[in-house]
Amino acid sequence: MIRSLYTAATGMKANQLYVDNITNNLSNINTVAFKKTKVEFEDLLYQTMVEPGSGNAEGASFPAGIQVGVGVRVVASQKVFSQGNISETSNPLDLSILGDGFFQVAMPSGEIAYTRGGAFKISAEGSLVTSQGYLLEPPIVLPEGSQDITIDESGRVYVSLDGSNISEEIGQIELARFINPSGLKSMGNNVFTMTAASGSPDVDAPGEASMGKIQSGFLESSNVQLVEEMVNMIVAQRAYEVVSKAIQTSEEMLQLANQLRR
Q1: Is the dihedral of CA 213, 218, 222, 228 positive or negative?
Q2: Number of neighbours of residue 60 by Cβ within 10 angstroms
Q3: For the chain, domain boundaries
Q4: What mean pLDDT comes out for the span 196-204?
């Protein structure tokens, strides 16, 4: 009877984490280029009371054994890097990636991080930076007097200088691509860092070597689907209620056992 209490407790803990994950997805439904997280479960160890195929006292073998599971746990929370919807902003510094790839940004520590969020700004020094002030890598610095900024789908940056009608190329945006993007570590602020699971990045110009292309004047939206997350929340809530009912039932059975008199 005690086993059922602990088993049900693992179910409540797992579903609580499931709801936490759904809540984070819903909270970021308006975050630029946010990627939803999917929770995966697995069953725990089993106590084997009768081994399948073992023999009984009469010499026959049991076609099925007796095994009792001890619960469930969350085994992974995986980022889903499907493409989000693209919305027009008409701001030439708003960049979206159509396809695979990440923008590279330099963290204050000097570490290179990766992001799909392309809402870039111009710093006081004329450099392209994220909303948190992280420098785009490799650096793109706009010369003084730059006008009519244009960024093509291959990541080449052009500006007109001193009122000239001739555009000059001043830099090249590069993208990074990972063999296992789900292995990246989320650092908050809409950035990821490389891990042993993600592998090392392949860096190239947009549109090259299976890299996505850049669309200037557009931003990628979150790939969270509101209806899907609401359905998942209902499922998680019902599962939590059922498992809590199992704990209540086990407690009532223990109470009855304690009230037995000879």
Answers
A1: negative
A2: 8
A3: 2-81+224-258, 86-220
A4: 95
- Give the burial class of 161: count Cβ atoms within 10 A of its Cβ; 0-12 exposed, 13-18 middle, 19 or more buried: middle
The structure's pTM equals 0.85
DSSP reduced 3-state for 66: strand
CB-based contacts of 252, cutoff 8 Å, min separation 6: none
Phi/psi at 225 (5° precision)? -100, 115
- The span from the CA of 91 to the CA of 118, in Å, is 11
Q: Over the stretch 118-169, which tens digit does the pLDDT of each residue have?
A: 999 999 999 999 999 999 999 999 988 888 899 999 999 999 887 777 888 9
In tens, the pLDDT along 50-100 reads: 777 776 667 677 777 788 888 999 999 999 999 999 999 999 999 999 999
**DSSP class of 158:** E
**3-state SS of the chain: helix, strand, coil percent to 5?**
25, 35, 40
For 170-214, what is the HEC assignment?
EEECCEEECCCHHHCEEEECCEEECCCCCCCCEEECCCCCCCCEE
Angle at 188 between CA 183 and CA 193, to 5 degrees: 35
pLDDT of residue 51: 79
Query: Which amino acid is residue 162, in one-letter code?
Result: D
CB neighbours of 177 closer than 8 A, spacing ≥ 6?
Answer: 100, 101, 102, 201, 202, 203, 204, 209, 210, 211
**Closest among 131, 135, 175 to 151, alpha carbons compared:** 175
**Contact in structure between 130 and 121 (CB atoms under 8 Å):** yes
What are the tokens at 204? 């190239």
pLDDT at 250 over 80: yes
